[in-house]
Amino acid sequence: MARFYVDGNSARFTRKDICLVDMELFGGEIVEDLEPRRLFPVSGRMKYITLLDSEGKEHAIIRDVETLSPESKEVILECLREYYLIPKITGLLERTEKFGVLKWTVQTDRGVQQLRIRNRNSDIKQLYDGRILVRDSNDNRYEIIDYRKLDKNSLKLLSADI
């Protein structure tokens, strides 16, 4: 079966549940209870969003969320925000290292957190756009939206690890 791609106004999306949408195609066909998921969660945040049913079967792919109508775009983005809930680090408060394990105390948009990072080479990823993705020893993920906008003390603590 060939892949079905959604572009522009070929479909309209309505929110069904926290992470579920209904898709109404231009011809009137309705596909219910689809879960939007990023095919490229790190590099392709707005492109190539797959729409899966409850059994994991793909029904369509949105090539670029930006081409959707404003209402449909917001529905898809809300679902993706819920599914890919990643706390945003807004500052580093403390950094220690013992036996090769980093311990960061960070301020996030969800409060103060303590992270244990085992391998800075694989668990701290600096991306081209200033974002930094961090994975702690419990496999929780965190994001610094733009490290260049952190306060002076946070930059000093972070500089040892990036």
Structure description:
This protein has 162 residues and is α+β, with helices and mostly antiparallel strands. It has 2 domains: 5-83; 89-159, no CATH class. 16% of the residues lie in helices and 43% in strands. It contains 3 helices and 12 strands, in the order ββββββαβββαβββα. The strands form 3 sheets. Strands 1-6-5-4-3-2 form a 6-stranded mixed beta sheet, with helices on one face. Strands 7-8-9 form a 3-stranded antiparallel beta sheet. Strands 10-11-12 form a 3-stranded antiparallel beta sheet. The chain is elongated, with a radius of gyration of 19 Å.
Give the class from helix and strand content and strand pairing: alpha+beta
Biggest sheet character: 6 strands, mixed
Task: Return the string of H and E elements.
Answer: EEEEEEHEEEHEEEH
Count every helix, treating DSSP H or I runs of 4 or more residues as helices. 3
Helix content: 10-25%
Write the layout of secondary structure elements.
Elements: E1 5-6, E2 11-15, E3 21-25, E4 30-38, E5 47-52, E6 58-64, H1 70-83, E7 89-98, E8 101-108, E9 111-117, H2 120-123, E10 124-126, E11 132-135, E12 141-144, H3 152-159
